[in-house]
Amino acid sequence: MKKILIGFIGVMFLTSLQARALELTLKDCLDTGLKNNRDVLKTKQTIQQLRGALITDRAEKLPNISLLGTHDENKLLDALDSDSAESLTLRLQQDLYPFWGLPRSTYLARKNLRNAYFDLAQSRINVYYDLRKSFMAYLLTRSEVKDREILLKEYIDRYNRLKERYDAGKERDIDVWEAYQDVLNERYAINSNIRSLVNQKEDILDKMGILEKVNPNEVDIVGELEELYELPVPSLDVRILDTKRTEGDTTKTFFPIFTLDSLEVRFSELPIDSLEAYIEIAINNLPEIARITADVKEQRKELLDSHWNYFPDIYTNYSYNTDDNDRLSVNLSKSGDLWKTILTADRIVKNTGNKIPKTTNQWEVSAGFTFPIFDGLLDYGTVKQERASLNKIQLDLENKINNVTISIVKQFNTLVETAEQLLIQRQQLEIQRKRLDTVDEFIELGFPGIDFEDRLREQRNYVNTQRSFFSARQNFVYAMENLNKLTGVIPEN
Questions:
Q1: Fold classification of 229-311+376-493 (topology level)
Q2: pTM for this structure?
């Protein structure tokens, strides 16, 4: 009985765990997305594919063991007997590491693999910041729903008060209908945002690569926008109020220019505090720039290697024969810009009929060369082509750095502009809130000349200002995320 009770409690506990909603923080989303996003997984599979291609290409660099067999038979037309000979040789051949140059196939295989790693780095950056942006969009929408729910409650209260006054014959029916329409409009806006939350949650799970594995209704997104961002807060700082400057004998009035210092904006998780720092970090971290930089380095080597074509092709062979006619040889050759060294060891397993002269620890050395006199300007054209390719890639690198710099400057200025706009809208929202509260107080006190028409007007001004604030806050958050993405940095924590 006790075992049955314990088993029942265990089943109930597991059931409660399964029924409990899965809570996802921003860090959970990012960590899971970097591991399970389909674009990242696809790029990793491409890397494995190219690794296999490189291993296949390098197969000839591994020892090659073969068995060589021959059979010769000579028979004269007027002879009854024939002469035959058979031999069987075990050969071990090893292509030693080339000390200069690479075969073209190996060069391309290594380059493709290197570019795949750059693609993986860019894919991780895209997933990281796209997920952050989707997560922020969800928090923004959810925060807007909370604010609108407060406003909806105020609309409902105002409608109930007008309804009571209308029943008492103190208000017009059109005022009641307008108040009721405001309730419907605000409720529609809230419902629309709630539907957007469903779509945004599915978008987050899809970018994490787990949408097909979990039920979105059993997932809770955990976090608050204020925990991730220190939004600009309005303050009457002396730097902002000091707008008069003296130049010579005249005093001129200047409008204040907002900067990131005066707005006290925190740069998310990146320890960056200036435009110059953003540009420097982007140049040092963006995979696109790293890719072209690697191509420049590779092309410089290609240009240097192409000059070897002006030198003669040579070959040398060193061999050593033992008492048992075993043979060990080393062949060194240069063809174009490729140098190769091949080690060969032959072991005679069987030999019948062949008369091999007996040798005693004999060394053999041979060498030769081919000196190009005229090749139809082939070598000259190759060097010229490689030099032009190097110049082109260097120009591509300069253009990429300039484009990145321009993009960061534009996005940095966009961030400052959205921060300033957010500061203004937050200040305006507080002012409009106070105006609305003041009108409510005057109405409650029966202040002459102030009625619900004034209240309705201020209420709608407040709603419009609130919408502008929501838009400005979203623009600021997106500008911050876009700027951080341009750096190509994925914070460790």
A1: Outer membrane efflux proteins (OEP) (1.20.1600)
A2: 0.72
